[in-house]
Amino acid sequence: MADKYFSLDIDEKFTKVVDSKKVGESLEITALGKIETPDFFYSSNLEKSIETEVGLIKKLVESLKITKKNVNIIIPDSLTYSQIISMPLLNEKELITAIKYQADQFIPMPIEETNIDIEVINEDQVNKKVLLLIVAAPKKTIEKVQTTLELAGLNPESVENELSANGRFISNFSKNIINQYKINQTQGFVVANFDTNSTSLSYFSPQDFIIKEVHHLSIGYQLFLKETQVNTDTDIKKSEEMLKTYDKKSPSSYPIEKIVQPLVKEFSNELKLFTNKYNPAAVLFTNKIFLFPSLITNLAEELALPVNIFDPSSFLVKTQLVDSYKKELSVFIPGLGGNLR
Hints:
The protein is of the alpha/beta class.
């Protein structure tokens, strides 16, 4: 039950806390906040990186006046391996054997070094089929986040990736999404989780709006930021500000459009390969897109289909807290989904 735990989404750029619960067809948020994750938290083996993150988590949780101790942890898609597979309905022993074989095909590391999570997306009793989401993560990564939470005085209840949390959020509010974005129910839509160092794409099928396929791209916000910084010879803060405020219709003194266009082209070509398979009604961007909102306009021109920032505000209970994050709500979607577990 969401009233017994809250979500802690630790990605490569932000650590985000969400405490919310579903009330009818809306979500009521009681706590919402974020703080920057220490550099190299996931890549460094130094104890200092854990100590720093522990201190930040304590500070964030205390500032939000959260007294709960149980936490659902969410980690980045970029640190996991995900696959959607359709399998015959089998008994438990046969299913585990088949899943281990399937996992071995897409996980580029020894199975014994990974944690594997299985989520049933859909059961088709008529055709005796089951659709599964298999998520694998390095054991070292899972152990690191669990240790960090325990040192912060919290009880890790579960660990999942952004794809799993996003999928749950969308399945709970699919009707709202269809109405908000005027999505044709014969087409479905694509969600693009635009993260720090990568983007994961997930296709939600029409009518039932469940994930049918996922695809991972090695293009994320950091690549656009790096190109901007190098080609403008500015510091990181200035480059971040340029991307956040860039508007193709109001050019700045820096040639941002010229700088980002090759990456936009590469990104759109990758998106086309995925969207052409399904002809979706729209592409909805989540996560770090609020740091580079004009990317939406550029991609819409390239793709020739509706591309939007996924804004969940219309189905959140309106409060001053929600309003204070109105331009950044896309980054909290995994955390919102984590509270629906």
